[in-house]
Amino acid sequence: MDVVSGAGTIVRIGLVGDFNTQFAAHQAIPQALQMVGDALQVKVEAQWLPTPEIGNGERLTAFDGLWCVPGSPYQDMQGAMTAIRLAREQHIPFLGTCGGFQHALLEFARNGLGWSDAEHAESAPDAPNAIIAPLSCSLVDALSPIHLLPDTLIARAYGRLEIEERYHCRYGLVRELEQQVFGAAMKISGRGPEGEVRSMELEGHPFFVATLFQPERAALLGRTPALIKAFAQACRGNAR
């Protein structure tokens, strides 16, 4: 399934994930891209990239931006990780939402911090170094407030520091690892009501933002998703 919307400058976005018509977030993505394409007066051409087909990631360089979408566990975790690493290292605009956030954390831990044995408890429940573990309170279809940190990409996208977004999530970062994961490179950019990490972004990158929540679902309510718009703007800046 491909998504084409808007008119004007062509912006090519690769949707990294395994499309499922039953996922609310996947239903929302075409609507969100249509809305931001109209708002920015650009033609958004988005292509779904099933994780088993990503391979070494060579074909991904044709895109102006990569969005690792919800839908974990992915059919091929390594495919998703290859796409995230490419975006991180090659400075390709990147957005990760829900499962995309979890796997962006995992990719950074393995390849950025050198934690080669870092795992996701959903796919490796018995792993000794599962840095992504079940949340103490499930966030499946929960609507919850998030406090955004000042002077971050995500705060500029929303234009305010207090937001409310919907989740469909059962896993997040092991809280005890927070200080080891975040520092000079990867920064926390949003926290939940109890201080939990809800969004992050990479310093020195034109646009590398990941959220545990699903901002695209605002489109299902007729609202242009602010973060998706900011991502598309970054992709437009990278368009060739």
Account of the 3D structure:
- The protein has 240 residues and is of the alpha/beta class.
- The protein is 28% helix and 32% strand.
- Strands 1, 2, 3, 4, 5, 6, 7, 8, 9, 10 and 11 form an 11-stranded mixed β-sheet that branches.
- The longest helix is centred in the first third of the chain and has 17 residues, at 24-40.
- It is globular, with a radius of gyration of 16 Å.
- The two termini are 23 Å apart.
Short description:
It comes from Pseudomonas syringae pv. ribicola. The protein contains 6 helices and 11 strands.
* Termini gap: 23 Å
Mean of pLDDT? 95
Taken as a percent bin, the fraction of beta residues is: 25-35%
- What is the CATH class? Alpha Beta
What spatial form do the alpha-carbon principal axes imply?
globular
| CATH fold-level label | Rossmann fold
CATH architecture: 3-Layer(aba) Sandwich
Number of helices: 6
Roughly how many Å is the radius of gyration? Answer: 16 Å
* Largest sheet properties: 11 strands, mixed
Number of domains: 1
Please mark out the parts with pLDDT under 50 across 5 or more consecutive residues, or reply none: none
Keywords: ATP-binding, Glutamine amidotransferase, Ligase, Nucleotide-binding, Pyrimidine biosynthesis
Domain Glutamine amidotransferase: 37-111
Protein name: CTP synthase (glutamine hydrolyzing)
GO cellular component, one term: cytosol
